[in-house]
Amino acid sequence: MIYTLDDDDLERLIDDWVGHKTSKYHSSEIFAGAGDMGRDVVGYRTVSKLEGPWDNFQCKQLRKTLTRPDMLRELAKVFYYSSQGHFSLPARYTFVAPTGINRRATDLLTHPMKLAAALKEDWNAVCASHISHGVVINLAPALEAMIDGFDFNNVDSLDATRLANDPSMKPVLVDWFGADPGAPPPGSTPKEIQPEETKYLEQLIAAYGQRRGTPYADATAALDCSEYGGRLKDQRTRFFEAARFKRYYRDNTPGEVLQSFEDDVYHSVIETYHANHADVLAKVDAVMERAAAISVTGVLNKYARVPVRQGTCHHFANDGVLEWK
User: Fold this and answer.
1) CA–CA separation, 118 and 116 (whole Å)
2) Which residues pair with residue 27 across a beta bridge?
3) Where are the domains of the chain?
4) β strands within 97-228, DSSP E
5) Strand order in the sheet with 92-96
6) Rounded to whole angstroms, how far apart are CA atoms 20 and 254?
7) Residue ranges with strand state E in the chain
């Protein structure tokens, strides 16, 4: 899928991907085109942007693998324009080449000291005429010193496979190509009552107490009840199935995907919720039955199992959207 993108779309894809790496980057920006000074997609690590640490993602959408000369020329641009005071050198420099890099270029990337030496040795012959249009920029002492002071361990490459396998790329691929986000990892229901589930549980326990004619002292008493304890355990299982589902797809799909799923569930059960019922527990049972019968649209359809759809209704109750009362 990534191979099919043109140059501009690859840059936008990488910008989107960097934007999902929120724990590492404050923001990102595309500089590609005339006057980019060797920058394509920039990930800013702090609010200081180019005045602070930043990473450069040089996008090379090529039919063939990235070559050694092209690699050196792109690096030379960043070093030259940095030496002219336009920006500091990037903290990391990554070649984004979906088709990969050839053997000679790989040899340099896997030997950082050799890469530094090659950039200096080949500068005048390979790079000097390819930095600024119509100008020959030979290696000056200041540039050589800048190269000597840079840690070339921070130069790397990403091909399409490595990109697709990056966790932050998953929601981007779902958004761009409708990729399958996969199923949530399995989990279990905690034995102890968790703070996150207190609201809907209180509502359910009151409903069970209403049905039997005697309120329960607390959640433990309700769970130990021979008549309704098993049913309450099933409701907790549904709640945590939905919680795992929500957590996984919140992290691995664009935000609107999960919102669309929740909207489908809401609008499928809302009429049942507002219908007349003998008591609150009858309402809960009717909504659970309705949630089990519905189907949802979009990429989450095949993963939205019955307990997930039912548990989502408990999340509505927990969040005050559709309370059990």
Assistant:
1) 6
2) 44
3) 2-177, 195-318
4) 155-158
5) 27-30, 41-44, 54-59, 92-96, 155-158
6) 10
7) 27-30, 41-44, 54-59, 92-96, 155-158
Q: Which residue has the tokens 């664009």?
A: 254
Q: Which residue has the tokens 């600024």?
A: 132
CA distance linking residue 110 with residue 178, whole number of Å: 35
Amino acid at site 299? V
Could you give the CA distance from residue 147 to residue 89 in angstroms, rounded to a whole number?
10
The pLDDT profile of the chain, 325 residues, written as one tens digit per residue, is 899 999 999 999 999 999 999 999 999 999 977 789 999 999 999 999 999 999 999 999 988 999 999 999 999 999 999 999 999 999 999 999 999 999 999 999 999 999 999 999 999 999 999 999 999 999 999 999 999 999 999 999 999 999 999 999 999 999 999 999 999 999 999 999 999 999 999 999 999 999 999 999 999 999 999 999 999 999 999 999 999 999 999 999 998 999 999 999 999 999 999 999 999 999 999 999 999 999 999 999 999 999 999 999 999 999 999 999 9
In this structure, what token pair is assigned to residue 94? 């990554």
* pTM of the predicted structure, to 2 decimals: 0.80
Neighbours of 86 (CB within 10 A): 13
**CA nearest to 150, candidates 209, 98, 80:** 80
**Separation of alpha carbons 99 and 56, rounded Å:** 19
Residue given tokens 């595309």 in the structure block? 30
